[in-house]
Amino acid sequence: MKKSYQLNTKSGLILEGGGMRGVFTSGVLDNLMDRGIRFPYTIGVSAGACNGLSYMSKQRGRAKCSNIDLLAEYHYISIGHLLRKGNIMDFDLLFDVFPNQIYPYDYEAFARCSERYEMVTTSCESGRACYFDEKENPQRIIDIVRASSSLPFVCPIAHVDGKPMMDGGLADSIPLLRARSLGFDNNLVVLTRNKGYRKSNKPSKTFGFYRKYPKLREAIQQRNALYNEQISMIEKMEAEGSIIVLRPEKPIIVDRMERDTKKLLDLYEQGYAAAASLEILGKLAK
Question: Which of 23, 32, 42, 106 could form a disulfide with 13 if both were Cys (CB 3.0 to 4.6 A apart)?
């Protein structure tokens, strides 16, 4: 019988995005599920939000299926999708056919779970992060995770409650401070980049995109600097012992839009092994 662990009530799980590099997180979460480890609070961004949903519904292997098996069979990332639908990924497959037909998402299990779960989007109007914890309305859940995963330039603007939204990573790539603001100060942070990684110091260009949303343009331009600040803070807190961090140890060879399933499987296995070797219970247990 699988053993269940009771974590400290102030424990939080923070899941970075990173596109297909999120298979590392899929491996981490599958290991946590195998060990019966549940966090009182979890927050996910973009790919982290997608993976976190399967963790919340306790559907072990579902995120791996989406990121690797489904990709191998349906080839849902391509320039062809971008040219035909204005989206580099087949969102109709990922956020309709997959959760409703191929590998149905267990909305009832998600609604029943006692743990709190938030997903992050970026408001096109304000350029600020929005945090949603919907559990009851299946369509709204899909709207939120779709918006959180809508990357600038290669995905269309999504809508939540009629409001234009995009990738949560633009405004809050690693929402550790959000968790702490809610009182969860005993945290495990799952990153999808190697230690020491930094984005370019140059502001991201927006070209002629999103002229209707100047605050979104500002968020895109400032994203690199904000991300680097968050990483520096995380490394400092990790060195002080105030947070636990899991990240890939091998050099990252998986692209944000990676289509090589062998590379993806290797990164998934890295995530599983990293969580398996993690002595998490001593610091996070009740």
Answer: 42
pLDDT in tens, 33-50: 999 999 999 999 999 999
Q: Quick one: which of 39, 4, 37, 7 has its CA closest to 15? A: 39
Q: Closest by alpha carbon to 126, among 219, 225, 206, 210?
A: 219
How many helices (H) and strands (E) would you count in the chain? 12, 10
Whole-number pLDDT of residue 4: 52
pLDDT in tens, 139-195: 999 999 999 999 999 999 999 999 999 999 999 999 999 999 999 999 999 999 999
pTM of the model: 0.94
In degrees, to the nearest 5, what angle opens at C-alpha 15 toward C-alphas 13 and 21? 145
The DSSP string of 100-117 is IIIS---HHHHHH--SEE
pLDDT in tens, 81-132: 888 889 898 899 999 999 999 999 999 999 999 999 999 999 999 999 999 9
pLDDT tens for residues 49-80?
A: 999 999 999 999 999 999 999 888 888 888 88
Q: What b-and-e string marks burial along 145-159, b requiring 16 or more CB atoms within 10 Å of the CB?
A: bbbbbbbbebbeebe
Among 218, 126, 224, which residue's Cα sits nearest to residue 173? 224
Pairing of strands 158-160, 163-167: antiparallel
Do the beta carbons of residue 55 and residue 66 sit within 8 Å? Answer: no
Residue 251: which residues within 8 A CB-CB, separation 6 or more?
194
Report residue 2 CA to chain centroid gap: 26
Tell me the three state secondary structure of residue 205: coil
